[in-house]
Specification:
Alpha-Beta Plaits, 7-stranded antiparallel beta sheet, alpha+beta, 2 domains, VC0802-like
Length: about 140
Amino acid sequence: MLINQIAVFLENREGRIRDLSKVLAKAGVNILAMYVADTEEFGILRAITDDNTKAVAVLKENGFNTAVTDLIGFQVDDKSGELYKVLEILGDAGININYLYSFTRSSRKSAVILIKVDDNNKTAKVLRKHGIDLVDEGLI
């Protein structure tokens, strides 16, 4: 149900994402999903890896400022309108989404949506009630 995400605070300067990628590559950590939001001075890179514990450790060892957050992950068919249906359900339940990112899995013809909300338990309960397939780290 919960997906563990790492957030890395990066100075907005040339090569910082490359540097982060190098550290993870050298440690044998695979990035499964990533999202970067930036401002003029800094960026926040959010990622799911195949080993977040190891990723956080090696990033900290190499001077990166990291944090860990739990997200809710759910799966929808990879077709028009499926995300909207779930967002309507969440909106009707009064659940605000702080941010989301997604990726498709062509082998399964589905999309995984990762959302940051204020109340993970309430959100999971609402999604389950409406038959929405929750995913955990093993299914990403």
